[in-house]
Amino acid sequence: MSGPKKQAVLKQFYFRNFAIMVVIPLLVVFIGAFSVVNYLIRQTALETIDAFQDSVVSTLENDIRTASLQLSHFVYANDGEFPAMAAQVHQAVSADQYFAFSQQLDQAFHTAVVPSQDILSGMFYMKDGGSVYMADKIILPASQVQASDWYVRAQQHPNQVQIGGYDTNQTRLTHTGQKDNVLFLVAAMALDASTDKSGQIDLVAFFSDTQAGS
Fold first, then answer.
1. Which end of the chain lies in a sparser environment, N or C, as judged by fewer CB atoms within 10 Å?
2. Within-domain flag for 124
3. Residue 93 is part of a domain; what is its CATH number?
4. Can you list the alpha helix ranges (DSSP code H) found in the chain?
């Protein structure tokens, strides 16, 4: 075999062995490493999502429990003092009387819900279609509120707290004081003769923002 041919054969042999012993193993290692890294990234992402979801659930559960306790305390405190005050506001026969009773109710409301800063509004919805508000007024039409699932459920189960919610990106609840990208919880309770001695109140509701997802 001549020199050039022998040299060509040696080169071919060298490159073939180099490919078998170096290049192919490196490719296998690279592909394997890429698969492992991709798996780890996906697992980390899933774990992060799971942790976030667990955090949201925990926050919501805590907010729901807090809102329910606050509303129950408000309704039952001092033998129904606050529903009686709301009935007074609703029955006011003059602007001065309405203003005075409203101020008393608003102050009592703020005292009752201290130290919570999350309650945007408290609303009494009356049987005659009227309403009495505390803090900020909810601007949703009464017909829309009364058609809500939480309102219907509350009417079906008087004196029990029912929970609803609104996404502030989709629903405007007040003219002022509302944040965007917030889930608002509604804690609602329909009253009967044992909790509303005036017989005027249909339902009382607290609207509060939640920290879930923030």
1. N
2. yes
3. 3.30.450
4. 3-18, 24-76, 81-91, 95-113, 142-146, 149-156
Contact 188, 204 (CB under 8 A): yes
Question: Could you write out the DSSP letters of every residue in 28-90?
Answer: HHHHHHHHHHHHHHHHHHHHHHHHHHHHHHHHHHHHHHHHHHHHHHHHHGGGTHHHHHHHHHH
Average pLDDT over residues 55-70: 83
CA atoms within 13 Å, Cβ hemisphere of 36: 6
Q: 11, exposed or middle or buried, with CB in 10 Å at 0-12, 13-18, 19+?
A: exposed
CA distance 74 to 124: 12
State how far the Cα of 78 lies from the Cα of 2, in Å rounded to an integer. Answer: 113
Owning domain of residue 69? 51-209
